[in-house]
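Notes from hallway chat w/ T.B., transcribed later so I don't forget. T.B. wanted the structure written out for a chain they're using in a teaching module, and asked if we could keep both sequence and structure tokens in one place. Agreed to drop them here.
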Amino acid sequence: MAVMSPRKAAAQRDGQSLHDLLVETAQKMIATHGTTGMTVREIARLAGVADGVLYNHFSDKEELVARALLEHVRTTEAELGELPVAGEGTLTGNLRRHVEFGLALHKALVPAFSGLVGQPKVLERFAEISERSGYWRDRLVAYLEAERTLGRLRVESEVDATAAMLVGYCHASVLTTLFPHTAPLDPPPVNAVVAAALHGIAPPDAEGDTEA
């Protein structure tokens, strides 16, 4: 009679499937050590199951890592708290919250994704299973669109471009800390970036001089 491992037995007692146990184990590995060097053997060892069990629940290692990565994104976002609601609070305070959320999110996730640069299949699987509507950038665009609809932003406001600039700021700020030798950049403070996004850099009477 086969002896069940303690982790497997505990998972079944708690009603957790082996599928979920493996995803949870891989997600914790990503949160602690990143994605570089993850192996099926190490995931199975930490989950307390045989190596071959993985292939009973996933088509391959890439699917497991992709699902663990998605769970890591969801867990990280949940830990960062709620984002502002359009029409409530101030535009400055709400945008500052969005940018601070984005900075914290990038700081937690960029290392995990950067470790997968040489594993495009994992990134392809992640794109297939993730819900685009849940991405922070899309939530930022939706927030700005809602504020524009409410009249708290100008009707001609370029919300997509504004979101792209704010997301780019988060990217640059985090990448600078990860790779200081390749990008010697001193990012401006969040308040300055929010002010630039809200008010622009040209005086009101110069708006007609800009090119279409």
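Follow-up for T.B.: The chain has two domains: 16-79, 83-200. Might be a good example for the class.
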